[in-house]
Amino acid sequence: MQKITLRNVIDIIQRTLNSIDDRFVNHGEQVAYIMLCILKEHGGYSKEEILRICTVSIFHDIGAYKTAERDTLLELDYSTSNAHSVYGSLFIKYFSPLGDLSKVILGHHLFVKDLANISVIGIPNEALLLGLCDYVSIINLTLGSVKESYLLSRKDRYSPEHISLFIRANRKYNFTQKLNSGSYIDELYDFLGNRLVTRDEILSYARMLTYSIDFRSEHTVRHTILVEAISFQLAKLYGFDDEKLTEIKISAALHDIGKMSIPIEILEKPDKLTFDEFEIMKQHCIIGYNILSDLNIDDIRDIASFHHEKLDGSGYPFGLKSEDLSTEARIVAISDILSALIGSRSYKESFPKDKTIAILNDMVHDNKIDANLVELTITNYDFIISEATIESSALMNTYNNLMNNYLELLEYIS
Predict the structure, then answer these.
(1) How would you classify residue 294: left for phi > 0, otherwise alpha for psi between -120 and 50, otherwise beta?
(2) Which residues form the HD-GYP domain (predicted)?
(3) Fewest CB within 10 A of the end CB: N or C in the chain?
């Protein structure tokens, strides 16, 4: 598997979220850069601590894609709102390598006056700093500049110590001017971008991104979890080593990220799609391909994006043929089909084993999917489904716990 940097991961997440709503383009990066300057001026954080806090700052609004608050978050005088903060903090907690920083996200829309009432959940100092950085970015995006007097007038929200820290950092690094010129981007990624991420970290980030699609389609989340689990079992039976298995799991976790841009009424339609609707749905493959392109991860991109290609060239988005499709891509393609067959929707029941196997054999006969991999699947069908069900159930339990925690924590923090 090709080496992946933190910059690659951030680019994937930013591109995917921007495909839904481009109003947040650069906002996360601006907030992270302001945070970088403030923490350097503070002097009490190690380089690794600053790197992790800045990374979580980039993703601070990931929960906004779940809630209706997205339409108001960039308003200068927004009302205090916590739904997206709660939701985003739980995605960071459960599905990222930054789980210990989840409360930084949780508290970034709380003010100094709020802390005494919710002290039991331990909102950290960095959460209030993140809220200040978030507000400074919004001021800059709205007014084009950030005047010290404006912040000094908001002592009802932010502590005098934090405002003073901001003023010192801005005078030293002149970061508000860099925000307007765009020169902050290179400086931010010079600090963040070259750090290599481990395979486990990549998988965590991939799940964070993929599962956040549930604000549009919970069915898609459940399907993706099962595709990842089936792909892993089939690839393991094929004999791939641990590195290749991780590559396949990451690719399977990302295989439907293009659905972020598909209209919800198509993703969650209770009946079969019309021809025109299916043509729109098919675009998710090329959208996913574009999101994952030009990031030095072509291996993952191709495995993830080719899951609807067919050996005879009749698939999409590129009409590739057998010689263009790797074993890894063929595994994810078969896993995608198998998940769809055994999954239930409002308009179809889960297919039984005999019907599922018959459909797979028909597709082999028509030269659509790999005969050897289908034989391996059928020979080990019960084992694959059993193990994949156990693995996907564990992930679904985590996902369901997130949803339960969301409701409990939102009620408390509100």
Answers:
(1) left
(2) 198-393
(3) C
Number of residues written out for the chain: 414
Six-digit token pair at 402? Answer: 């997130």
Is there a contact between 35 and 132 (Cβ–Cβ < 8 Å)? no
DSSP string, 348-361: BPPPPHHHHHHHHH
Per-position b or e across 224-233, b if 16+ CB within 10 A of its CB: bbbbbbbbbb
pLDDT tens digit sequence for 7-32: 888 888 888 777 776 666 688 899 99
pLDDT confidence bin for 157, thresholds 50/70/90: confident
Position 31 scores a pLDDT of 93
Distance from C-alpha of 318 to C-alpha of 180, rounded to nearest angstrom: 40
Number of domains making up the chain: 2
Q: Quick one: which of 273, 271, 277 has its CA closest to 346?
A: 271
Q: What is the average per-residue pLDDT within 129-151?
A: 84
| CATH number of the CATH domain containing 382 | 1.10.3210.10
Sign of dihedral through CA atoms 202, 226, 220, 328? positive
User: CB–CB of 299/1 below 8 Å?
Assistant: yes
- Identify the domain containing residue 139 by its residue range: 6-197
User: Which pLDDT value is given to residue 76?
Assistant: 55
pLDDT digit string, tens, across residues 79-131: 556 788 888 898 898 888 899 999 999 989 888 877 666 665 788 989 999 99
Whether residue 202 is contained in a domain is answered as: no
Question: Are residue 43 and residue 190 in the same domain, yes or no?
Answer: yes
The sign one gets for the Cα dihedral 59, 65, 68, 70 is positive
Among 162, 197, 232, give the residue marking a domain's end.
197
pLDDT at 15: 82
Structure tokens at 404: 């339960």
The whole-angstrom separation of Cα 255 and Cα 232 is 14
In a domain, 210, yes or no: no
Residues 303 and 380 in one domain: yes
Determine, yes or no, domain membership for 287.
yes
Q: What is the pTM of this model?
A: 0.82
Angle at which helices 381-413 and 218-238 cross, to 10°: 140
Averaged pLDDT for residues 359-371 = 98
Do 141 and 242 belong to one domain?
no
> Where is pLDDT greater, at 261 or 102?
102
3-state secondary structure 112-159: HHHHHHHHHHCCCHHHHHHHHHHHHHHHHHHHCCCCHHHHHCCCCCCC
